[in-house]
Amino acid sequence: MLACRSVGQDPAHFRVHARRAIRLRASVVLARAGWQREAQVLNLGLGGACIVLQEELVPGDRVTISFLAPTLWDPLAFPARIAWAAVP
User: Fold this and answer.
1) Can you spell out the DSSP letters for 41-86?
2) How confident is the model over 56-70, as pLDDT tens digits?
């Protein structure tokens, strides 16, 4: 599942906050379904992130995304809401 638009296809006016193209591993937890999966983060900004995940999510799903930061002992965990999703 691709939960973002491709970085190269975004028109400049699409987002209020710019995103940076990155490649990070993350953990995504969907509590209502009781699962945790590994994901890849393709871009990240103040307004959101683009993740690739092998599970189907729907707009409105509330998830927790955790990133491992090289300078921190514990992962950074952020509550998030899926704004839109696409199946490639």
Assistant:
1) EEEEETTEEEEE-SS---TT-EEEEEE--TT-SS-EEEEEE----B
2) 999 999 999 998 877
Buried b (16+ CB within 10 A) or exposed e, 22-37: eeeebebbbeeeeeee
Kindly report the backbone phi and psi dihedral angles of residue 7, in degrees, each rounded to the nearest multiple of 5, phi listed first: -55, -40
Give the predicted TM-score (pTM) of the model. 0.77
Beta carbons of 24 and 41 less than 8 angstroms apart: yes
- The rounded distance, in Å, linking the Cα atoms of 25 and 85 is 19
**Exposed, middle or buried, 3 (CB in 10 Å: 0-12/13-18/19+)?**
buried
Q: How many residues does the chain have?
A: 88
